[in-house]
Amino acid sequence: MNLIENIREGLRSVRANLLRSTITAMIVMLGITALVGVLTAVDGIEHSIMQSLSSLGANTFDISSKTNRGGSSDGRAEKAYPEIRMTEAFKFMDEFRSSSAISLSAWATRIAEVKRLSKKTNPNVTVMGTNDEYYAVKNLEFEQGRAFSSLEVRTGAPVAILGYKIYKALYDAGTGEQVTGTYVTFKGTQFRVIGLLKEKGGFSDPSSNFDNMVFISIVKANQLAGDRVLNYNLTVAVRDKSQMEYAMGEATGMMRQIRGDRVGEENSFELERSEALDELGDLTAIAQVFGFIVGAVTLLGASIALMNIMLVSVTERTREIGVRKALGATPLRIKQQFVIEAIVVCMLGGIAGVILGIVLGNLASKLLGNDAFIIPWLWVFVGFVVCVLVGLGSGYYPARKASKLDPIESLRFE
């Protein structure tokens, strides 16, 4: 009796004892469903959170001027470094080669009063200078119009993009009045409006209250500042989060070169990344361990039940084992038959458990805000491996017991 025949015999035995095999497979199915379902939900929730964190800068790092301005620490004067200049920022953007998008921004003022025709806003509007990639990096969407072109940024064209609160103050928002092609005035300069951002809402911090902002090109903001030096901020959004450390290292080396920092000296600029990804990774790991423990406990119960059923099967089929041995089946083949039968039952339950786990896991993650359908191929593979191991572990002792039966005594068994 070869291996293929043993597999066929295992399937025949499953069909012959359909109710017992179905109940055993369902026990295994529950364990695999718990394992795959929880881990699918975790992956789905992680995917949803990653999308949300991406819009908040979780896959970005910032380069800005050092905040120290010649203070003292432990009785020693700290060195003051010059602000990052706009020419240095543009040079960095032109030469940085990693796969990323780079935004450049600076506050022109936070107390502007914006006017249009006979209407005007309160004198608390933030005017921010940006480049053309700022809106994609910050995940800002347009209600009307478009973002700046690269040419408009580099030439300092007098064009502007409005936040939604500014739109409601200066336009008839109820009728959906178009902003493109209209003009607004602030800081003594007239600007042609080319875009309107969608309402974000929910922000009390002025630095993130995009609804109460007017955006102009970074070059134009520099012109409006006159002799005042703007505090430029570069934000690098890395497309592949696994390349974050490499991109940060490359950015540090390039900015040091642009700034003329000498070997052995500290950086003359600040480079910081969001810690959200690291915290998310820790939470995900904890959730995955929890899911694995839940599945493991359920599978432990399934393996005990399966071993019990296989021992009963050995007792019920003692005469059958005697006949097989009398016809020349070796102890190895007898052992293979019972182990394969246990694995077949586990695999049937495992297949059903994987499918049910994926469905339930995606339903759970959808209820928590994830719209993407997740198939965790790693955990599917792990689930099948676990099924084989459970079948092997549960079926080995009964199979070993069956292989050691004396054929003559087995034939006498009633």
TrEMBL record:
**Any transmembrane segments, and where?**
21-42, 289-314, 338-361, 373-397
User: Which keywords does the record carry?
Assistant: Cell membrane, Membrane, Transmembrane, Transmembrane helix
Q: Which domain of life is it from?
A: Bacteria
One Gene Ontology cellular component term attached to this UniProt record is:
plasma membrane
The region annotated as signal peptide is: none
| Family listed | Belongs to the ABC-4 integral membrane protein family.
Q: What is this protein called?
A: ABC transporter permease
